[in-house]
């Protein structure tokens, strides 16, 4: 082991050092810290270093994961924690998702301006302005709540909450329940949107650990954090998105469930105003009994391979079903309209 990935204590004991890269937003730090805590509990002898990246954007983190720093001659970081929903279905070559952690509440939540406390999307007055930059949320909610108006709101969670509370621009904003709870802001949740109101994004509510595929020891180390049910659901969801050629900002939504060894996937695509949509539900058996190691970028050697294959096939079949009904046209128009904004 090189001196860069290990250190010696006073008694000459060699300690493995694992470097975790993180963005600097509060949510990114909270997510990274929670994974570091779990790794520390599992591997008390490993020394974990959290390295804050001054730059923003996942490309930079991938760079940190791939590059050897010429000055200190070591690999800059060994793993990066992401919200799975922000990870593309095709990772750059050489990378893999080594762990998908147990999913938290995957649904979307309504955060109300304090003046609207006690209200819901249904009971907000006509022409109330709802903040979201998610095409997926806007498309579904425009259709379901035609009395409301939708406007973009950008920035990290702290910025958005500030924009909501300190100005009069928005009656409410829509955020993922999982992000709110990680921030400790559960008390701000005015309403959780059920699947009839709003299907969630692919991977929403699950954390993923990105690693270098060739780092077998790191892959093995983080793999114990895989939650088998979440892995199967998210493989199906990501396969569905990949087959639709949807990035992370297309009006595509899902709902998944595992019940009695059956994996259920509801997949949907929407026009930007929600007036045109396709939605269907399919299921597959994921009963357990592995040759391929990665599926839609996920490596989960402790989850039965055939079940992962079945999950992936379910996503593919669902995408093909919707494509046969015209999903491509809906998404192409949505993309073009969005690009033109
Ligand atoms: C992606 C979307 C959004 C994020 C699009 C979508 C929401 C953007 C917006 C792909 N990433 O959901 O349809 O509201 O304008 C993001 C959040 C989290 C991860 C915040 C949020 C935390 C929750 C999680 C932003 N990425 O969605 O409220 O881990 O799933």
From TrEMBL:
<dbReference type="InterPro" id="IPR022419">
    <property type="entry name" value="Porphobilin_deaminase_cofac_BS"/>
</dbReference>
<comment type="pathway">
    <text>Porphyrin-containing compound metabolism; protoporphyrin-IX biosynthesis; coproporphyrinogen-III from 5-aminolevulinate: step 2/4.</text>
</comment>
<dbReference type="InterPro" id="IPR022417">
    <property type="entry name" value="Porphobilin_deaminase_N"/>
</dbReference>
<dbReference type="Pfam" id="PF03900">
    <property type="entry name" value="Porphobil_deamC"/>
</dbReference>
<keyword id="KW-0808">Transferase</keyword>
<dbReference type="Pfam" id="PF01379">
    <property type="entry name" value="Porphobil_deam"/>
</dbReference>
<keyword id="KW-0627">Porphyrin biosynthesis</keyword>
<dbReference type="GO" id="GO:0004418">
    <property type="term" value="F:hydroxymethylbilane synthase activity"/>
</dbReference>
<protein>
    <recommendedName>
        <fullName>hydroxymethylbilane synthase</fullName>
        <ecNumber>2.5.1.61</ecNumber>
    </recommendedName>
</protein>
<dbReference type="InterPro" id="IPR022418">
    <property type="entry name" value="Porphobilinogen_deaminase_C"/>
</dbReference>
<dbReference type="GO" id="GO:0006782">
    <property type="term" value="P:protoporphyrinogen IX biosynthetic process"/>
</dbReference>
<dbReference type="GO" id="GO:0005737">
    <property type="term" value="C:cytoplasm"/>
</dbReference>
<feature type="domain" description="Porphobilinogen deaminase C-terminal">
    <location>
        <begin position="232"/>
        <end position="299"/>
    </location>
</feature>
<comment type="similarity">
    <text>Belongs to the HMBS family.</text>
</comment>
<dbReference type="InterPro" id="IPR036803">
    <property type="entry name" value="Porphobilinogen_deaminase_C_sf"/>
</dbReference>
<dbReference type="InterPro" id="IPR000860">
    <property type="entry name" value="HemC"/>
</dbReference>
<feature type="domain" description="Porphobilinogen deaminase N-terminal">
    <location>
        <begin position="18"/>
        <end position="219"/>
    </location>
</feature>
